[in-house]
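Work Package 3 (structural annotation) set out to generate three-dimensional models for the target panel prioritized at the project kickoff. During this period the team completed the workflow that converts sequence records into C-alpha cells, so that structures can be stored uniformly alongside our sequence database. As a representative example, we reproduce one entry of 268 residues exactly as it appears in the project archive.
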Amino acid sequence: MSFGNCKILQVNEQSIAVYDTETGGRGTVLLSHSILSSSMMWEEQATLLSSLGYRVLGMDTRGHGSSGPTGLGFTLNDLAQDCVRVLDTLAIPKAHFVGLSLGGMIGLGLGIHHASRFESLVICDTRADMPQEMADSWNPRIQLALDKGCTAMAQATVERWFGEGYANDSANVAVMSRFKDQIGKTTVNGFVGCAQAIQKLAYLPLVNKITPRTLFISGENDGPFPKALLELAPLLPSARYAGVPNAGHLPNIQNPKEFNALLTHHFK
C-alpha cells in the first residue's frame, strides 16, 4: 500500500485494516472499495485528497485486503456500522465518505442511518436496490468461490469491471495483474459474506433520508449503473450525478483524469 500507515483496529468483533495518512487540516475522507478489492484501488485518489489538505483513511472491508478473517451472516448495515466504529476508534466525529460498488452501497447505508457523521458522500458505480435477476446472478460466483477459492474468479472479474478489450490489452498488464492478485487474496468468507449482503440490498425506499451533500459517479460504460444513479439522484435532498466517459466499473482506475476532476470539484 502506498498511502498511510496501516492500523489494525478491533471493531464489532472484527480486525479491520485502516490505512491512515494521519494529517490534514481540512477534515477526514474515508474511502471504501469494491468487493474483491482493497484500499489499494484508491491509492491515486488518496494522494490527490491528501494534496488538497485532507486526512485520508483507506478501510479494508471484512475479509478483504489486510483486514482479518470474518464469519458469514452480516449485512450492509453491519458494514456501515464498521465504518462508524472506525471513526469512533480514531476519535473522528465527522468525515466525508467515498465508496465504489460495494463501498457505494455501504455509503448509502451510512447516509440513511448515520447521516450526522458525514459532511458529504461520493457514491460510485452502485445502486440502491437489488432486482431478483441481479441477486440470482451472484449465486454461481458464490458457488465458484466456495468450490475453488477467489482466484478462480479473477480473470472474469477484471473483464467484467474493465471490459475485455481493456483488461486484455498488453498496456494494462501490470494493473490487471495487481487486481487479479488482490482478488485471489480475498478470503472466501469475505467475498461470500459481502455477496450475500449485496443480494439483500434494499435501500431504495429510504434514500430520501440521505441529507449530506452527495455526488453520484459512474463509468459511462458500466452497464445498468449510470441509469440507476441518474434516476437515484433526484430522490435525495442534495445530490447530483456525473458520468465518466471511456470507463467501466472502476472509473477511478480506467479514466483517473476525469474521475479525479470530479472528485477535486466536489472537495473544493
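Strands lie at 5-11, 14-20, 28-32, 55-59, 95-100, 118-124, 213-219, 239-244.
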